[in-house]
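Rotation project, supervised by the postdoc (A.L.). Task for the rotation student: set up a whole-complex structure prediction and record inputs and outputs verbatim in this book. Inputs entered:
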Amino acid sequence: MRGARVRAEADSAAAGPRAMVSAQDVHKRYGHDEVLRGITLEVAAGEVLCLIGPSGSGKSTFLRCINHLEKIHAGRIEVDGELIGYRERGDRLYELHEREICRQRTHIGMVFQRFNLFAHQTVLGNIVEAPVHVKHETRAEATERAMALLKRVGLADKAGAYPSQLSGGQQQRVAIARALAMQPKLMLFDEPTSALDPELVDEVLAVMRSLVDEGMTMIVVTHEMAFARDAGDRVAFMDGGVIVESGPPGDVLARPQHERTRAFLARVIDGARAA
Amino acid sequence: MKRIVPVRRHGLWLSSAIVIALLALLANSVWRNPNIVHAVIWQYQFAPAILQGLRTTVVLAALAEIIGVVFGVVLAVMRLSASPVLRLGSGLYTWLLRGTPLLVQILVWGNLALLFETIGPFRTNALLTPFVASVVALGLNEAAYMAEIVRAGILAVDRGQFEASMALGMSRAVALRRIILPQALRVIIPPAGNQFISLLKATSLVSVIAGGDLLTAAENISSANLHTLELMLVATFWYLTLTTITSVGQYFMERRLGRSDAGRQGAR
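Outputs recorded:
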């Protein structure tokens, strides 16, 4: 199903190739509310990790820590070997200057649940915005790649449209193209299909599957169990700010070891049947 | 197929008739009033002194608006900053300049030499001519109002827009300039247009420091020929012209900014 791409063989860090994301004992609080309570995981280059779990379990928060949209309070996150958000000197971590954080983010694409396309710009404008104004590419260069990306997500004819003129599924495909325009090494998806009408989910998942086939490293927070099962290399189940269990989708989804995982999966699958 | 007869709205007809009658009375009271010497109006409507005053009013309003918008944006960003000192500074500024009469502020700027004889190496009176004092007073006052308008506009932009900008590696400054402010503009323009119309009329207050504006020009003439009301009507005509042009400009600006809305109703 996946062609020639390299798969991360096992769950453990040592077995995979180069680690693209490495999180160690990540903690995050909102006031006194500890939403992440020690997350440790690795994602190998080219690997696809699906994060599942009930709402409020901290999966989106963890995703947002990876590109420093949220600051972590303890632990460390590295992307492609580079510590995110901080500089290490001696036994201290110094917070990075905004310019450095921006540079780190240019390597990490993110797709949001609510698309967040720039409402005042056309589809093409949305895609060339960051390449032109962050990476300082020429407009011609950025436009050329934008058109190729639009063609790839099947929306070449919508280049001049405004986001408000598109369906949710089309908007999300543009959002993916916009993230890809920065040529990231890692893509983060925060419930990319949760805000979509059911009949629009597949067109977005199809674009995501094509990325998987290209070997993009991806972390996907999702409720789409079918996608997690057949596109993901690994599934991690989160609850209460910790990773309860993780492993190949066949194991976690079909033979969960923990009671909480079983209860969650039973609920989700019942919900899907009822719908 | 039976004909549909819309309900007769007698109240609407009646109230419309009353409005028309009142308008006719008003026009008549000005037009046919024996105490208004119409010849004086025609004589001064396009008189060079009046047109000079009109030009000053337009330049005054334009310069004050530029100061107001630029400084207003700075104040709004300060108000939304993470630093409590910047927030407080911006809040105090708005509190002071919105909380005191504009007339008082104009008098203070116009008489600043009484407070400080020199500003740095310059003599205050040489630096703050009545015109410069007028521009400063109006501009700084306008900034206090624009700050609130811009702040409301920025807050009206969905937070997701800012997050998407951050995720793409934009700095705060680039996100503000490229993504947030252009979208805030849609919310800012209607109250800002209103505010500019206020400013156009508020320029007349600088006549108290001989600001050389349209009203000053009209007053200078009327104090000589004693046709006070006629010259107020001359000035009124020009103020209405200016505010009308502003309203039309605002309409087209709003329409242009509304482009990205096209099909918002139809799309989902």
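Student's summary: The mean pLDDT of chain B is 91.
Supervisor addendum: The interface with chain A takes residues 158, 160-161, 163-172, 174, 178-179, 182-183, 186, 257, 259-264, 266-268 of chain B (CB under 8 Å).
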